Each structure stands twice: as structure tokens, then as C-alpha cells.
Amino acid sequence: MLARSFWLIAFAALMNITQATPGRTADAVNVATPSIVIFAIPYWIAEQKGYFKDENIEPTLEVVANQREIGQRVLNGASQFSITGPDATIVDAINGGPSRILAGVVRKPPLYLIAKSSIKTFADLRGANRRAVAHRRLKQAPDQDGEG
Known about the structure:
This protein has helices spanning 2-15, 41-49, 51-54, 67-76, 87-94; strands spanning 27-33, 57-63, 81-82, 112-113, 132-133. By secondary structure, the protein is an alpha/beta fold. The protein has 2 domains: 2-18 and 26-109; 110-148, no CATH class.
């Protein structure tokens, strides 16, 4: 029920969709994602249960490997929504761009930025070794200077 509510409210709000009327052409909606991932489950549930059809929405889920390209597709209208991690949108917003996060499908993001105690600001990251950890229970490989 939560997944259905999320998708229907998001699509209706952004596309100004009113109640479906008989004979009306379905609204085509393109959703871009970088890969087939768990975060697309609400889309698939809505599709399988017929929620899009009930609202006269004809969605397509397109895999686009590059998050920057996904962002550009949303900005230029080639895609109306994206299912991606928040990092590209956050960077765009920090740099004064128009992208914003509409909603999330997980309560807690599964990625973390982990840094040595000597790194206090984003500027301190310049030239530093970086890595992403997908889950905090996973063992981390030591970086090049042997620190974990």
C-alpha cells in the first residue's frame, strides 16, 4: 500500500494528472535507473498490480548506466523520474543546480562516506584515497596506506 501511494502521489503531483477518463490517451512516463536494483521494487509492484493502468499512466523503466546522463535526461524532459542514489542530486544542488530529491524508498541510505579522522571538510578529500562501503557489517579492505 505504501509503495502504491508513493508512486501515485509522486506521478500525479508532478504531472498534474487528474482522475483517468475513458478514451483519454495514457500519459507516457519514462523512469530512468542506473541498473536493475532493489530500489525499483515499488515501480515493479505498481506495474504488476495494475496501479499505473488504473491511473492511465503508461510507464517505461529505462536502464541508463551513467548517473550524470540520468540527471541530464530528467532536466531535459527525456525522463520524468529517476530511481538513483542521492549523490548526483546532492552534488548538483550544492553546486547551485536545479536537481532536488523528491522522495526516498529506503529509510536509511545503504552507502556511507567513511574518512580518516584527519579529514574534516570536503576540501580535505582532494588527493585522498576514497571508497564506498555498501553495508556497515561488511569488512572493509584497507586503503593504500594500510589504514582501514
